[in-house]
Give the backbone structure.
Amino acid sequence: MHYGTDAKNLIEVAQSPNRSNPSHPELSFRVRIMKLNSNTTYYYKVESTGATGASDGVSSSVRTFKTQ
């Protein structure tokens, strides 16, 4: 996941390894982002990568969240 306070400049990166479970067809992904500023709007984009960590070209649109 790339994120930042400027939608056109998502320079921060949050990563989390994921593990698939054959008994669950869907995956839920979680990342922990530390040291965010309060009362700030952040923009983020989720990107898919292969096993080597290289981008596979699949990504979400830019979304937002706001800290309290």
Notes: The chain has a mean pLDDT of 87. Residues 1 and 46 are 4 Å apart (CA to CA). The first strand starts at residue 2 and ends at 4.
